[in-house]
Amino acid sequence: MASNQTGPQPSKITVHDIAGKAGVSQSTVSKVLNGYPNLRESTRKKVLQVIEEMGFVPDQIARSLVKNKTGTIGLIVGDIANPFFSETSKTIIAKARQYGIDVIISDTDYDNAIMQKSLSAMLARRVDGILVASVEREDPNIDRLVERKFPLILYNRKTDNERANYVVSNNSSGSRLAVEHLIELGHTKICFLSGSNKYSTFHQRYEGYKKTLEKHGIPFRPEFVYMQNNPETGLCGFIHDVLRLEDRPTAFFAATDQLAIQTMNLVSKMGYAVPEDFSIVGYDDIEISSNPFVGLTTVSQNNRLMAETALEKLLGLINGDISAEQPIQIVLESELIVRKTTSRARET
Amino acid sequence: MASNQTGPQPSKITVHDIAGKAGVSQSTVSKVLNGYPNLRESTRKKVLQVIEEMGFVPDQIARSLVKNKTGTIGLIVGDIANPFFSETSKTIIAKARQYGIDVIISDTDYDNAIMQKSLSAMLARRVDGILVASVEREDPNIDRLVERKFPLILYNRKTDNERANYVVSNNSSGSRLAVEHLIELGHTKICFLSGSNKYSTFHQRYEGYKKTLEKHGIPFRPEFVYMQNNPETGLCGFIHDVLRLEDRPTAFFAATDQLAIQTMNLVSKMGYAVPEDFSIVGYDDIEISSNPFVGLTTVSQNNRLMAETALEKLLGLINGDISAEQPIQIVLESELIVRKTTSRARET
DNA sequence: CTGAAAGCGCTTACAG
DNA sequence: CTGAAAGCGCTTACAG
Fold first, then answer.
1. Using a 7 Å CB cut-off, which residues contact strand D?
2. Whole domain around residue A38: which residue ranges?
3. Distances in whole angstroms, Cα of residue B217 to Cα of each of A89, B180, B220
4. Quick check: is A197 in a domain?
5. Which of A38, A54, A171, A180 keeps 20 to 30 A from A186, CA to CA?
6. Which residue's alpha carbon is at the shortest distance from the C1' of C2?
């Protein structure tokens, strides 16, 4: 009976208190709480009334312990300040709330060590399932969860593990859309600007770029490819170098809107005009891109659908509506949005 | 002994299993887990080894139940897709992780009903404390928590409740910076564009705008103020109306970068140039604003500091390092960042 | 239709 | 230095 140091904290009222006031047993209170059917209507009423009067809210921690289910899921993103992640998180959080489930969020900053820690913290906290928005193509921690058949859905990026559940968009065909648009405009010297190959998204966008060139009989040129692990540092140097080439590019296809916008900034600082001197296509259709001041031509993924699908499948897995035997593997199509950063190539 | 429907889920290993293998009692295992000092070094070693071997991770749910502490906090934002909220969330999530505490996130979409539900869900889930990034000036649910002295820190926006803990920036002086900059450039006909008055941020920015005009002997004109509850809908109409006035404004001070950028778009569509025809100042310094294509002059809050301070204070409250007797009320200063959307007024 | 009892997986006095 | 026991706040068979 130590005095509570936080002061007049209304000392927790429990199912036991309700039972007392209502003149029933704990079990009965619990049964009304859980919608148990065979209860006399009058006792249900009475209990409900006392609960209301005392403002009782059952303790989810205790409930979780016995039910072996917490009503929480984990959400792991690469960078919540990146619009793609925050927009999909918003969808997931809103939808989860509708189902009464809470989300524990983690931001890995694309760091494997943090990913691992987040995963194990979430498991220790007994989340019912996990959504991962950014994995590398190889990730042993994810493999372990897949093997255990722990409810897990990767979205946006997937691992190479063939048994993993994922909801991604068709990055290869997205690239094809972008590159063919450029080709139709008469461009043949097209640079590819991208993030690291260790992510399936960039890997596939890169493959799509190469295949599309090949399909149209355009030679692939390694010196036209920028695919740094650290996309922020070297872009400026790359652009300068590639523009110094005798046979320089007339167009840039960036695997990311952020990269596309940086490129726009760089070339305008160098005195060039977009799209007059260079056509630029991005990928992602983040919010800024549609801003009239930017007007970036880009490949748009259906973020909302991706996030909703991922959550829906996860919940299905959790409550057993969906069998965990067959991996869930969903590929969404993307579309090209033509705005004002692309135009006909000057020299054909 | 029902067969587990999820299959070869490695049936949960407990402190009891560890105790068995290590030849000690549960209590002892628990003691090494909790760093209890008086233990023979050899038994500690032994237990640690078994834990390692079996890959045992203690169940946080069970631990939370008995410790009456969950190691989680709640984070409530108005709109995670808004850069201000996602950037501050990132800071909070990262810092919380360093302390080993998990964050349950909620996005209210500025809806009071969702706010209330989020709050009670978090309490039921027994979070150790709550951070709220967007409250209205009046909020009875918050008042109740304040009265109970539940660990709670408001940041960015605060309620009118004088006992509430908060970390905000000085919105009034931020406005003064913006308006005086415009006045120095020779502007006297300055519009104020803002979100709803029901938020302390906008309320104070509005007050700052009015006071600064007054201080400089410039008459306040109600027709120059746009302060809709729904900022997205009516801006276009307002701009058109105000520009049709005989004595029309030469500058716009927007209480939000988003509003400022929308205004830039609107007036450019109408054929005007910024800053030649109109000067525009924003508030927030979101990422796009520094983009060379936008180059918005704006008031910058120290988001990172605000978020860090809020979390730090919350943790202090939770572990009792900070007394809950005196409200924690911190006001951070902001600065003006002059870029290229403001210039000298044409007609003086 | 209702209640007594056991138990979820831990921790914490209390004894020894 | 270590263990037996009680308990955190619920739910769930099992009896009746």
1. A 12, 14-16, 26-27, 29-31, 33-34, 56, 58-59, 62-63, 65-67; B 23-28, 31, 36, 38-40, 42-44, 62, 65-66, 68
2. 15-58
3. 48, 12, 9
4. yes
5. A171
6. A28
